[in-house]
Amino acid sequence: MNQFTSPAWAYWIGAVTIVSLIALFVFLRATARQTVFRDDKGQVIATTGHVWDDDLQEFNNPLPRWWMGLFVLTLVFAALYLVLYPGLAFWGGALGFTSDKMYQQESHAYEQRIAPIYAAYNKLDVAQLSKDPAAMATGQRMFLTYCAQCHGSDAGGSKGFPNLTVQDEKSFLYGNQPATLVQTITEGRQGMMPPMGQALGSKQAVTEVANYVRSLSGLSHDARLATLGKPLFAANCAACHGAGGVGNQMIGAPNLSDQDWLYGSSLQTIEETIDGGRMGHMPAQKGNLDADKIHVLAAYVYGLSHGGHR
User: Are 186 and 285 in contact (CB under 8 A)?
Assistant: First the structure.
């Protein structure tokens, strides 16, 4: 649609609108006057001279004045509207009205009205607030608006998006303590698992490490390959995931010894992760929510993993 970005289009649209209104007014004036029709002998007649079925005649009567008045009032209203409001593309309107300004005014009024509610919620810490049914109803609505697109309406997550309902704190990439949740929601997260295929040196080595990773959480695996993969894991992966694969929440390295898998636990998926790496992004919400609202949302997420309102 880049062909419609020229400022000239604004004047074209405005000109068409103005000319249309003028044309309608001229048309109304023309139809308000009774046209003179004459018969074959030159005598003035009250009809147009058209006759159907012997006696069905078309009379030459103008519109009733009340009807004509309604049309004129409509045109006057349209002209006044275009003067006061931004109906013309090149004219912003004498009142300076914009839908964005109206939205901002209504949003500000709404925020002023609900501010005392959030102020009361802010007096409770996240753990306490997670037990307040009214606050959690509000938190759920915010979660459905800002978080459910990725984490699901039930917060169960999906491939590449964490499950927020797990009860084991070690399964959270960065932890699920109140301060951590507030930071995550406010600032977002940028996770990166570097591709390790080249560092391991071969596809066989990737398969060996993948089998060892599956063994950490008790999944079926090839014991021989897992044995071969253990020293490779220690040399290339333990720096982030720990010697036993328990993860590191300081840097968002997942716990590989539990049953919660961000991208899946199949051998093929783990091999893909090791070989090609992964990139994850949790967008910051500080541009959408103020601190008081983030406090309530963090309490809702905290309650999901602490049995508060599931």
Answer: yes
Task: DSSP letter for 161, please.
Answer: B
Q: Which residues pair with 280 in a beta bridge?
A: 191
pTM of the full predicted structure?
0.72
Cα-Cα end-to-end distance for the chain: 47
Question: Which DSSP category does 248 fall into?
Answer: B
Beta bridge partners of 253: 248
Question: Helix (H) and strand (E) counts for the chain?
Answer: 13, 6
What's the distance, CA 279 to chain centroid? 21
Residue 248 pairs in a beta bridge with 253
At 116, the amino acid letter reads: P
CA distance 140 to 152: 12
User: Can you read off the two tokens belonging to residue 250?
Assistant: 């300081």
> C-alpha angle with apex 307: 301 to 310, nearest 5 degrees?
75
Tokens for 309? 């309102």
pLDDT at 265: 94
The two three-digit tokens of residue 127, written as one number: 């753990």
pLDDT digits (tens, 9 = 90+) for 150-189: 999 999 999 999 999 998 888 899 999 999 999 999 999 9
pLDDT in tens, 93-136: 999 899 999 999 999 999 899 999 999 999 999 999 999 999 99
CA 243 to chain centre: 40
Element (H, E) at 57: strand 56-59
In one-letter notation, the amino acid at residue 50 is H
